[in-house]
Amino acid sequence: MRVVQRLEFDNVFPEEEPKEIMEYLINISREILLKFIGFCTRREQPNYTNIFSNLETQAEIDRRVADYGRTYNLPERPILISREASLMFAEIVLANRDELLKETDERNVDDEELNLFKAYLLVNKNANEKQNLGNAEDNIDRLADMFMAMGFASGDIGNFENVDLEFAKALYAMLVKFEYLIEFVQREENTYMAQALIETFGQENLDGLNYQVKTLVAQLLRLKHEDAYIVSPERQDHINFLKSLTSSKIEPSADFTNLKIFPIYEIEEGRFSLVDYFYVVDKFFKSIKFTLKAAFIKHHNLKPNDSSFFSYYNLHFSEDVVMKNVLDEIFHWPYQKKRQEADTKDSEPDYYVRHNNRVYLFENKDILVAADIKSSSDIDEIDKLLKKKFVHDGDRHVGIGQLITSIKQIVDNEFPYDDYVNNKKNLTIYPILLVSDRIFEIPGMNYKLNKWYIELVKERLGDSYNPNFIRPLTFIDMDTLIYWTPYLVKKDKYFRETIEDHHKAMNRVTVINNPDPIQGRIQAQKAISNRLSAISYREQKFKFPVDLLVDKFRDILPD
């Protein structure tokens, strides 16, 4: 995890008054604009040092950035291209396609490249201005806020340096959840949802939808491997399916909503390009939720702004299907005890499992983040959201608050869902908060939520709080849990070891005593980054079995 500055127009051209972005874009050919959107999805991104074909222009830009770096004593070389800025660029181009995407005869490549460079610098300025880092008091809290503010807006397009690994995890988890979803909408009470999906994607039945989705996913894997971004299908049915993922009308939005709904665009007849790999994958689980919501509202004759669908979906699908199936697979040993039936449902944990004196408490949160908050990069607004969704909503305990309620019941020998724990001392309790969206796995998030959890559990338990037996908060997204399941099912201790290793890393304080200031700074940055890492970014002891991914495509392969 590094904090690297995005170059802005004034950094490179301090003597020049910038034009409007559109004034630069209007002088760039249709071909370059469309290809650049897809190009920005590639693994290897150019920086300001290798973006120009004209060597004299490149040398001049290198000199200007070097002057800027020396003037302001930059610790690291700045970057030109980032995923958030690239999405902002794509949105501008596709929203103004009638004006920008015209065929042109005369071209000057040198001028086009310089105009493209300047336009992107202005986009970077807009991206940088969105970040408000708040007023954290000490160094590690300040860095946690920084990582969260910088990562929250773009957390759904890959948080970590190994974006390919992050994408593979997102892709596999989507396939698992998509299979659960297909089963869910086939239930008698949900068939209207199935019909909505069939119609949205222009298919005859769910089998056809399954075939098209998995065919596209297989193409994404190939494109990722080849570091490419253009799809040229031969079959007309697949062309038609891809067209259902495109739109000629893209309106700018706070969190790229329209790019998420339409994550593919058509370069020319039968040739398509990707706006973003993650958005294409998310289309078939995250974005599809809003198709289901519309069907739910129509079926039940509700008002358009009615929110009861999310309660239904979160309880009956996210919790009762996805969470329960995944956790039942992990905690499959017959000697592990699940929660017993009780006369009350008050403060019932979403999932409970005990192995001897080790207790695992789970709360599951499938929440939506308002576009304006997500895109704001304002740490104060992000903190307000996190406290409302994960600590307390008014007078009601949620998430962390619910976990602490269960912990207090156990400590007070009043837990109604497992008689065993009311008669035992020296129980070790592991509170775990599950979330449905990887956006919450950005660096600094678990650190901050654990800090709030420690403050609250001490307050509510008082003298009964014992950190030797009441463990820190583990914050983990469902995709990571699905991805790790092949490893976690092998031995009952693997889950406990994984979260305990995370706790140790999160709480490890490293004393730096290096006479070399540069090396000392590198060591300090590494140590702090390790404390702030999400559990999903921790080095794991297993390699994902590729055959499990291959198995997901067997139902569409010819006999």
Describe the structure.
The protein is an alpha+beta fold and 559 residues long. The chain has 24 helices and 10 strands. It folds into 3 domains: 9-129, no CATH class; 163-304, no CATH class; 308-550, no CATH class. The strands form 3 sheets. Strands 4-5-6-9-10 form a 5-stranded mixed beta sheet, with helices on both faces. Strand 7 (392-393) and strand 8 (396-397) form a beta hairpin. Helix 5 packs across helix 7 (109-129), helix 9 (163-185) crosses helix 21 (478-488) and helix 16 packs parallel to helix 21 (478-488). The two termini are 46 Å apart.
Key descriptive features of the protein:
alpha+beta; 3 domains; three-stranded antiparallel beta sheet; 8% strand; 559 residues
Name the average pLDDT. 88
Q: Number of helical segments?
A: 24
Instruction: Provide the helix percentage.
Output: 40-55%
Number of discrete domains: 3
Radius of gyration, rounded? 25 Å
* Apparent shape: globular
Lateral strand order in the biggest sheet: 4-5-6-9-10
Largest sheet: 5 strands, mixed
Low-pLDDT residue spans: 133-138
Indicate the proportion of strand residues: 5-15%
Task: Briefly summarize what is shown.
This protein has 559 residues and is of the alpha+beta class.
Please give the structural blueprint.
Blueprint: H1 9-12, H2 21-25, H3 30-39, H4 55-72, H5 83-95, H6 97-100, H7 109-129, H8 139-152, H9 163-185, H10 191-200, H11 206-226, E1 230-231, H12 236-243, H13 257-261, E2 264-268, E3 271-274, H14 277-282, H15 288-299, H16 308-330, E4 337-338, E5 351-355, E6 358-365, H17 371-376, H18 379-390, E7 392-393, E8 396-397, H19 400-411, E9 428-435, H20 445-461, E10 474-477, H21 478-488, H22 493-507, H23 517-532, H24 546-551
